[in-house]
């Protein structure tokens, strides 16, 4: 509609409705938010857009009855088969008989971020409990199995000892491998932190040198540092291990691109201000990105990458990201990840003094 063409340039989503509650105009931002083209939105009833749009419908009805000039509220709008929308809605009564109501929807990005961090915190607690229980369930019988195999090896008949010892050695070696796995699972909770002043760029440079030593050909590690970032109190070895685990996963996903000579990992550091981490507000925080140009994280595990024993690679232990999350959490920080083919970005946020 020509009279609302100026709204096409707005970043927030705008819907204009007729007296029957049908959409007669939607700007491009609304098309993106609702994931429908204007042709499908046109003449759609407001009541059919969301599964729980009662409050939005109430606002529409009150606007029709001229009970207010505009009504503002935070809403969580549920959709069939899609993620719910966290929005700040503004319902405005227009002095136009054919189009009496305008609804503006602004996606509440901050609320989405807080909800996601809260889910990750809950997941981290569940991971700790799962790991602790799993480790204890494995450790006790593991010692018995290894000990029994050693005793059995001593009792083998001399004539068959060499041939049968291969089997007992398999048992002992596999028991030792599982013991190492259990120790890695328990490491973040078992080892005390060694707190000192940490320079994040020294951490990144250490990881960079380790990575280039392991992958000397076909991998470029670029640095995009903000050298004004101050030192902060933390455990340098834990932070090195966290960054190394993420970078190592990235490198393993880049094997095909290494053979072509265009594999790339970027270490990028910035400072963010007035950030909320785990429901606590901080004046300053370190913003560290580890970005690779690999194939991306498989969609099937994208929401579970920080779970223990979940791996997108054959032969992977599925512990690297779990341990990285545990170490960053011990620094009052959070890890987030965005991934698509050609770009995977792990973002680490840690409070600064």
TrEMBL record:
Keyword list, A-Z: ATP-binding, Coiled coil, Kinase, Nitrogen fixation, Nucleotide-binding, Phosphoprotein, Transferase, Two-component regulatory system
Occurrences of domain Histidine kinase (ranges): 133-353
Reactions it catalyzes: ATP + protein L-histidine = ADP + protein N-phospho-L-histidine
Pfam hit, one: HATPase_c
InterPro entries: HATPase_C_sf, HATPase_dom, His_kinase_dom, HisK_dim/P_dom, HisK_dim/P_sf, PAS, PAS-like_dom_sf, Sig_transdc_His_kin-like_C
The enzyme's E.C. designation: 2.7.13.3
Transmembrane segments: none
Gene3D superfamilies: 1.10.287.130, Histidine kinase-like ATPase, C-terminal domain, PAS domain
UniProt keyword Transferase present: yes
SMART domains: HATPase_c, HisKA, PAS
UniProt cross-references to PROSITE patterns, sorted A to Z: HIS_KIN
Coiled coil ranges: 102-140
Superkingdom as given in the UniProt entry: Bacteria
Known role: Member of the two-component regulatory system NtrB/NtrC, which controls expression of the nitrogen-regulated (ntr) genes in response to nitrogen limitation. Under conditions of nitrogen limitation, NtrB autophosphorylates and transfers the phosphoryl group to NtrC. In the presence of nitrogen, acts as a phosphatase that dephosphorylates and inactivates NtrC.
Protein name per the record: Sensory histidine kinase/phosphatase NtrB
Species whose genome carries this gene: Undibacterium danionis
